[in-house]
């Protein structure tokens, strides 16, 4: 029997029904528990802080979106990230922010449009703050 792969309407990730999309389900459940969004709301309803960084040309020159307020794993140092190739994943926030330069608006325009197309409501920032770290800490507890 052939597996049925679907694309999530919220984040664009592939998943196997009847299981829901893991990326969206985890963030929605976590945010509901913390009272950040109510029933019937999706993760896309909330603005998400994003920092766009760019890899050096010798490493591909791709733009990466870092979400400093969203935990990437159970490690406080990681945040969620998104790249056109590879899509969602975890990233070392401090390591990437210190080793990659900020992307210009022209450089991140296509990635920003892609994220908005899959349902993100973005708030572009240039740096992570202590409040972002506290938000990740609450998520991993």
Fraction of residues in H or I helices: 25-40%
Largest sheet: 6 strands, mixed
Q: Give the overall pLDDT as a whole number.
A: 80
Report the total helices: 4
Give me the strand/helix succession. Answer: EEHEEEEHEHEH
- Envelope shape: globular
Question: What can you tell me about this protein's structure?
Answer:
By secondary structure, the chain is of the alpha+beta class. The protein has a domain at 43-140. Helices cover 30% and strands 28% of the residues.
Topology:
Layout: E1 6-7, E2 14-15, H1 22-33, E3 47-54, E4 63-71, E5 78-83, E6 87-92, H2 93-99, E7 101-102, H3 105-117, E8 121-125, H4 130-140
Parallel strand pairs: 3-8
Antiparallel strand pairs: 1-2, 3-4, 3-7, 4-5, 5-6
Supply database-style keywords.
single chain, 141 residues, six-stranded mixed β-sheet, two-stranded antiparallel ribbon, alpha+beta
């Amino acid at each position: 029997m052939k597996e049925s792969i679907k694309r999530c309407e919220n984040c664009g990730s592939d998943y196997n029904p009847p299981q829901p999309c893991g990326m969206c389900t985890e963030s929605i459940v976590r945010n509901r528990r913390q009272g950040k969004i109510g029933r019937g709301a999706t993760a896309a309803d909330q603005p998400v802080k994003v920092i766009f960084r760019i890899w050096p040309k010798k490493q591909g020159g791709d733009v990466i979106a870092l979400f400093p307020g969203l935990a990437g794993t159970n490690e406080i140092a990681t945040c969620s990230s998104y790249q056109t190739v590879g899509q969602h994943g975890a990233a070392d926030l401090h390591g990437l922010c210190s080793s990659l330069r900020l992307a210009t608006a022209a450089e991140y325009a296509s990635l920003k449009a892609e994220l908005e197309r899959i349902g993100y409501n973005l708030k572009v920032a240039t740096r992570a703050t202590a409040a972002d770290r506290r938000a990740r800490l609450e998520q991993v507890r």
